[in-house]
Design goal:
One of its GO terms (cellular component) is plasma membrane. This protein is α+β, with helices and mostly antiparallel strands and 401 residues long. A hairpin with a 5-residue loop joins strand 2 and strand 3 (151-162). It has 3 domains: 8-118, Acyl-CoA dehydrogenase/oxidase, N-terminal domain (Butyryl-Coa Dehydrogenase, subunit A, domain 1); 123-237, Beta Barrel (Butyryl-CoA Dehydrogenase, subunit A, domain 2); 241-394, Butyryl-CoA Dehydrogenase, subunit A, domain 3 (Up-down Bundle), CATH 1.20.140. The chain has 13 helices and 10 strands. Helices cover 50% and strands 14% of the residues. The strands form 3 sheets. It has a 4-stranded mixed β-sheet. Strands 2-3-7-6 form a 4-stranded antiparallel β-sheet, with no helix packed on it.
């Protein structure tokens, strides 16, 4: 990857994270993937040096850096060979805490943030539901305030919740006003920062068997009158959708960085193999049928890199510059996620094809990268919904959904 144009802070982050990831070779990630074993040692290593708080306030124990630096951290992790499993082990700790840090009470922040940063607590993000998918404004999980007013009862189901098996906290989006009673579509959802207490009644979690990123659990989470204290509400009741958007744009930037790292890792493996593999008396990389697709993949990654770090800079600047429209940040972050995911898929597919039959072998890692590169194309929002968003919000075309 071309490093010209990055800030001193971003390059410092890259060097520091590289020193940590160097302690976790590809064999570590192969073993975690094949045995579906949580990379807890990796999470602990990042927590030990304070990196889980990279974009959180210094007064709460964080580094006080921005999403630009956090995106570089996530890219460096995936590019090291850790892939999406390494990124998914920690990224909710970075993006899901953004709305909490902005809207949480003093008590919530002092109790929760330091323990997330030091690794005592891991967290997960509870938004997606099986029957609503990307229709976030139609979420059905309910949070009903009990008669005493000091607690809520949670009932409903969440799906594709990463790290729920190992998380102590969940940032939860639930409905506090029935959808038919809301005055506007974005009203009626509330955000909570809740304990995942396996000993309390009303909570059940089931792992989902999946194609890639097997080291990190994905889950269905069921709530059945699960009781939470009223003081777990973050911000104002019924304003959760507006609050949680602050985490969603950050997540798109981080995921774009993760996709980039995966793509660059695959490309590095492919070029090394193309140089080393000799057929008919010459390295296969001398053939334009190999060289040109890899060169094309590199340029796609570099273009997506520019979009990704532009989006991250815009996100960071918007925190203090009110002249930057929220709409502009959303367009940039969604576009970056789309472009980086597509570029990563191109690079990973071509890496496997460059290896030929050995691309199918676990020991070369590129098969793992190809399995994992589908994640950024699907989550947290599909390619098609991003195209819908840009069509409508930028090109002013009629809404299609």
């Amino acid at each position: 990857m071309e490093l010209t144009g990055f800030t001193e802070e971003q390059l410092t982050v890259r060097d520091a994270i590289s020193a940590i990831t160097a302690k976790f070779p590809n064999t570590y990630w192969q073993e975690c993937d094949q045995n579906e074993r949580d990379p807890k040692e990796f999470h602990a290593a990042l927590a030990k040096d304070g990196w889980l708080g990279i974009a959180l306030p210094e007064k709460l124990g964080g580094a006080g850096l921005g999403i630009s630096e956090a995106t570089m951290m996530m890219q460096t992790i995936t590019q090291s060979g850790a892939g999406m499993a390494g990124a998914q082990a920690i990224h909710a700790n970075v993006y899901a805490t953004q709305p909490l840090a902005k809207f949480g009470t003093k008590e919530q922040l002092e109790e929760t943030i330091p323990k997330i940063i030091n690794g005592t607590w891991r967290t997960c993000f509870g938004v997606t539901e099986p029957n609503t998918g990307l229709e976030t404004l139609k979420l059905k999980t309910t949070a009903t305030k009990n008669a005493s007013g000091d607690s809520y009862s949670i009932t409903g189901q969440k799906i594709w919740i990463t790290c729920a098996q190992v998380a102590s906290k969940m940032i939860l989006l639930a409905r506090t006003t029935p959808v038919e009673e809301v005055k506007r579509s974005t009203h009626g959802l509330s955000m909570f920062c809740i304990d995942l207490d396996r000993d309390k009644p009303g909570l059940d979690m089931r792992k989902i068997k999946k194609m890639g990123g097997r080291a990190v659990d994905a889950n269905e989470v069921f709530f059945d009158n699960y009781q939470i204290p009223a003081n777990t509400l973050v911000g104002e009741e019924n304003e959760g959708f507006r609050i949680i958007l602050h985490g969603m744009n950050a997540e798109r930037c981080l995921l774009a960085g993760e996709a980039l790292g995966l793509g660059y890792a695959a490309l590095e493996r492919a070029t090394q193999y193309a140089n080393d593999r000799v057929v008919f008396g010459r390295p296969i990389g001398q053939n334009q049928g190999i060289a040109h697709p890899l060169a094309d993949a590199y340029m796609k990654l570099e273009a997506a890199k520019l979009a990704t770090y532009h989006a991250a800079r815009l996100y960071d600047a918007s925190r203090t510059d009110s002249s930057i429209p929220f709409h502009s940040v959303g367009v940039a972050c969604n576009s970056a996620k789309y472009l980086a995911a597509e570029a990563a898929f191109t690079a990973c597919e071509r890496a496997v094809l460059t290896h030929g039959g050995m691309g199918y072998a676990m020991e070369y890692d590129v098969e793992r990268y190809l399995r994992e590169c589908l994640v950024p194309r699907i989550a947290p929002v599909s390619r098609e919904m991003i195209l819908n968003y840009v069509s409508e919000k930028v090109l002013q075309l009629p809404r299609s959904y």
